[in-house]
Amino acid sequence: MKADITLQEYEAFKSFLQDACGILLGDNKQYLVKSRLRRILEENELNSLGELLERLKKPGRASLKEVVIDAMTTNETLWFRDNHPFRILQEKLLPEFAARSSLSPLRIWSAACSTGQEPYSVGMIVDEFRRQKPGKLRDVKITATDISKSVLEVARSGEYEMIAIGRGLSPERQKHFFTPSAKGGWQIRPQIKSMVEFKELNLLERYMLSRFDIVMCRNVLIYFSADLKKDILTRIHATLNPGGYLILGASESLNGLPDLYEMVQCHPGIIYRKK
Questions:
Q1: How many domains does one find in the chain?
Q2: Catalytic choice (107, 127, 146, 218)
């Protein structure tokens, strides 16, 4: 990017991003936009953010739009991020669903799954629970979604470089759930990979998904406006089975939706049950 971003260009890009994927970009984040879009502008021989916006308006630019959204939404993630949601799964939710007499599979949705660390972490917790309670939770299906094609490609492969493996994964779990790959990385084992189905999904659009018992929508709502948060949480409510649970990020809450969910205090952490 040869030119600095003007205020007019920045405001126009903020509007584009919010319309495209709901992300509410704050003020004075020009440095972030410039760093994330620099390569895209160079590859397309564009000199400014304004030129990029003009090209995005032209017909047949869906692939460029996807690349821009990918660049602005791709974030680093960790295995077992924040830890306590996985303790809640292990100590409260999985035992609760295992005790139910339902013959239906346990269905879990990992929304905004990025490169797959969250849904695969859930799969590891399920596998560990099964080994502790043989015969329980034999049928578990995890649906993992993200708006970004590029992160879903990584997630579907189930293969990670050593630097990614080291972010939050214990040596014991690495040894048990991964095998060395031919490319020098680490491949997640089939018993975990087979639990997870990855799908491309924009949380702002209408979506047809299965009903779920547990939804994990963590560290994504913080990027949306209050109205969009309410809309997304209402849609998630519609996908939950009666008595199903919603797990949010540590800094996220359900302000404004007391009629849809009830708070469940766990130790540690808070989750929400569908009313």
A1: 2
A2: 146
